[in-house]
Amino acid sequence: MKMLITILYFSSLFSFQALSAQQAPLPIQPLLDSLKLIIADEKIPGAMISIVTGDSILYTGGVGFAQVEDSISVTDQHLFRLGSISKTMTSLAIMRLVEQGKLSLKTAIMEIDPDLPIKNRWRDRSPILVEHLLEHTAGFDDMHFNAIYNTTDNKRPSCREMVDSHQKSLYARWEPGTYMSYANPGYVVAGHVIEKVSGKPFNQFIKEEVLDPIGMVSSGFYFKEPTEFPMAKGYDNEGGKFRAIDYPSIQGGPAGELCANAADMAEFLQFMLNRKMANGDRQLISASSFDRMESSMTTLAAKQGLPGGYGLAISNGWRWGYKTLGHNGGIDGFVSDYIYVPDANFAVAVSVNTGRRTRKILNAILKFYVDKPEVKRQEASIPPSFKEEYEGYYTYLNPRNQLFGFIEKMVTGVSLTVESDSILIKDLLGNDIDTWYHAGDKQFYTQQEGEPFAMLLDHNDTQAIWVDGGYAEKESKVIRWIKNILFALSLLSVIVYVIYGFFALLIQLLSKDKRISSERVMLWIGAISFVIMLAGFISSMESISDVAKPHVFSVLAFISSLIFFATTAIGFVLSMRKSSSGGAISKWYLRLTAVLMLGLAIFLLRQGIIGIRLWSY
Fold it and tell me: Residue 78 and residue 62: Cα distance in Å, rounded?
């Protein structure tokens, strides 16, 4: 049976041409059969699917189960949580205010509300603007653990109240309007802007001005699980078995709270393709506003001419030989994606009710309906000066989460080797990652795209690269290796000393002279504390919803981190005394360990790890 379905599927690929407005729609069943195989293989309970052209709704519905326990199949009326796809709707709401003359994308946020808890040391010359919020170029940190979920309110708080919960994220880590770093709190601030300027609650404004006019009659930003419409359940996959997830309320609101069904998403997709509502010629926003939403304008790369990028909650991509526009989203128990392809007159939205990627489903739908075109692009030779100027190693400097940014610096950097007609990209270990081809003006194609997605930059007298939103600056690869090796040696020294210290103390206790040197005891306690701290962190991160409240693991991580720092510092001082115990080799090993452990402790203190209270971070 499985072989028969596969044969039907592939035969359909070769039997039909790409859809246009004049062609008859393809029979959907072979595609649905193939999608059932995909979700079974990917262990996905169910998938919501919308497929449209500019003038036709080809399919709304789904495959699999909206509710596994009751064997309820996905229909086009089942709401799915769409996560960050919410941001596109919030951007549309902002653009409605722009169209109404009530707001400008160039308006400084602090002019709209001077009391906002936002820190920006570049405020005088580079204030944070509305468009910075929407392009993620304000420099904000992403959500901190204690500001992800709302477990206390029975009804939705205002966006201003949500802003207050995110104030630890609302600081410009770099000059606004330079780098991009995805930050949900920026869209919470955007929701407050909507409430402040419109004088209406966010939910009311976006329902009246965006969702209802588009035709998304069942969709909404639901703080609590909706009861007036059928709702799909989200699931974890544990050992091959699905476990239902409750509907947690989030502090994201405008950034991630949207629920929609397949019927509504079909209306939305046609709206994005046609740039107007399906029920008439009325435009929600102007063509120029659509153009602005679909292109980045505030990043360093955009200002130097790189096309596409992340616009106002619309991301440019490349799939199946076409430039695509859209957004994805993830929230507890759901992963979603929508793309529209103007050049193919085609759009699709997919949402699955578990934490699995939608890529295979999207690709299968594209392959079924759309012919893959031959990509035409003009490649330019690479000037010889690029080799001397840009060849080298680059470290990424725009982490999404600042707390773990030091890990990204250590492992995600890339080396550029300039050839006559291409640039070879390798990781820190020398493994091939990509090959870039010059499109002119220091812009590069990174895969088989027909549009460049990477760029060489000069910023603050430093060579830099920009690739798909990532910003990296040139540094010495040797120095990077030295830093990484020292960090690794510091970790190793701690682990080794846990074992060494145990046996050394045991031998000392069994000997006639039972005196135990204080420096050895301090360093051993420090090493044990580090292991406990690390275990506490890892255990705490297993459930983000539990991180936001004190529990045994997060408290252990907090206390043990302080003990690690204190005992390591004391052990270092004691080990450097001339009177420290042991033979020469033992003394020098002890001192080397003390130096490495203290270096690690100071490093972690600078990164904010020492003394961190995860429940209030």
Answer: 9
Q: Are residues 399 and 321 in the same domain?
A: no
The amino acid that residue 236 corresponds to is: D
Number of structural domains found in the chain: 3
**Predicted local confidence at residue 494, as pLDDT:** 95
459 strand-pairing partners: 462
Any residues with CB less than 8 A from the CB of 396 and at least 6 apart, and which?
Answer: 408, 409, 412, 413, 470, 471, 472
Provide CB contacts within 8 A for 208, sequence distance 6+.
200
Domain end among 457, 475, 493 = 475
Please tell me the pTM assigned to this model. Answer: 0.91
Per-10-residue mean pLDDT of the chain, 617 residues long, equals 33 33 66 97 96 96 97 98 98 97 97 97 97 98 94 94 96 97 98 98 97 96 96 90 94 97 98 83 87 97 96 96 97 97 97 95 96 91 94 97 94 94 95 96 92 95 95 97 96 92 73 72 94 92 75 92 97 80 77 95 96 90
Q: Are residues 206 and 251 in the same domain?
A: yes
Of 431, 450, 475, at which residue does a domain stop? 475
Q: Is the distance from CB of 185 to CB of 170 less than 8 angstroms?
A: yes
489 and 396 within one domain: no
Domain that holds residue 433: 385-475
Q: Which amino acid is at 426?
A: K
Neighbouring C-alpha atoms within 13 Å toward the C-beta of 587: 11
Does residue 514 form part of some domain? yes
Cα separation, 617 vs 612, whole angstroms: 7
Strands (E), 407-477: 414-418, 423-427, 432-440, 443-445, 454-459, 462-467, 470-475
Q: Are 430 and 354 found together in one domain?
A: no
